[in-house]
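User:
Hi there, any thoughts?
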Amino acid sequence: MNQMKEVSSGEMLSLCKRRGFIYPAYEIYGGIAGLYDYGPLGTALKGNIADLWRRTYVLQEGFVEIDGDTIGPEAVFKASGHVDNFADLSVTCKACGESFRADHLVKGLHPNPDSLSIEELQGLLRANGVRCPCGGEFADVEEFNLMFKTKIGPGAGRTGYLRPETAQSIFVNYINLYRHCRERLPFGCIQVGRGYRNEISPRQGVIRLREFNMMEAELFVDPEDKSWPRYGGIKDRKVRLVPNTDGVEVEMGIGEAVDRGIIGNETLAYFIWVTYDFLTAVGIDPARLRFRQHLKAEMAHYASDCWDAEALISFGWTEIVGIADRGCWDLSQHMRFSKADLTAFKRFDEPKEVERDAIRPKFGAIGPRFKGAAGDIKRQMEAMDASAIHDGLVTVIVDGTPVDLDADQYDVVRVREKVNGVRVVPHVIEPSHGLDRILYSCLEHAYAERDGYVTLRLRPAVAPIKVGVFPLMAKDGMEEVAKALDLALREEGIATYYDDSGSIGRRYARMDEVGTPWCVTVDYDTLEKGDVTIRDRDTAEQARVPADDVVAWVKDRLKHGLVC
């Protein structure tokens, strides 16, 4: 039986490189910190994890999926706050010129370095005499923006950035998605893709990267109703929580956490459970998984509640998923900067009589100015209320272009009217998954040893190779039978590896080391009786199965998530 074993990051990364999971990028040129390539098995593993995540959100939860651009114009990231605020605090050595994240240098000197201001970090560094590894003195702490800046187009071009997250592609497509989803809340959208952050001092292998893979879901909900229809089915499920009140880890039912006000609302709680269910399905050890609530000091200014799913790996407790209630921040910001209507219509059960401050155009002003377009402007303005006024200006769209109207061109009047509903800015619940971190955590949690040999106990659903196919010897017709069986499995979409090199024991060991759940061996009994040996990775037990039944045997176990 395989014995689960804690593995060092060095051992794990060495195995990953040797067996084709993860390679240091540009290694023949000396490599670049924070950049890694996925080898053949790593690419397959990454794809399998992403496919399972898609099935969770698209098929199980009914989300839609988009694939947005990775380059965006500056205006998008000004609106999102990334241009002005997406920064880490950096210090540079006066002697050698090496830069470091300031908060990394004071770990052990403060319980939560991420929460410290520039001044606090500066004071802590000086008070403790922290110096560069070379012995040099550090310059003052300063902000370093993590965005990769570029130009869109030739010449001066337009300033653009590589996206630091996939979420903004979803937010700027809100209108299209809202229409696609029949203009009803709630609805959700996912995206799997690359993000880019120019990290100051990348470290910890694939845990902190400059180019990374994300799986993000954005759920648009009624700001006044954050219940969830399927919440009742999971509220008694227990997870390990670290609330921000006392920082003490507890095992608690999802529903109890909501009832006690620890988790902000039902929808957030439901997707904490969905996250737990997904992570354990791909191979994260439940005993090494917890959900830590952000401290008030580290909570994003727009978030009302945020939880990190953390896995215990060789680097310590590591965030692999963030689940946040982002409120209406994102859509409100993009509405303010783009002037587009990013609201949703919330229909009442029965019409209500309401009063509002309505905007009315002054026809004597807009008629001569806009002529044939005046009627359309009138309709736009009559749909607005006083909340649409910013700095005394009302923005309308004329021939696709935003135009600002000052107070000489409109009046604000109090009106009473019957309405069927109101327009609201949806709130966003966001589960954001770090694919690279999840993949690496799965590898560490799958690591085991038997008789001095490594076994990766990867879940069959995500294992890059499902079946190793071997002829006992490449002679007497065994090779032909094995190749035919290998082809039959692949034609059914089952990833295989054909191997006729070396002893059967060495072939088993190679497959164990890359996480292959089963190995099928064609031998002399196969030629005589028509059955093959199937070996289980985790137990090393063997069974005889008719060769004609192997495909169905494997498909059944993949369907039910069985290893043996």
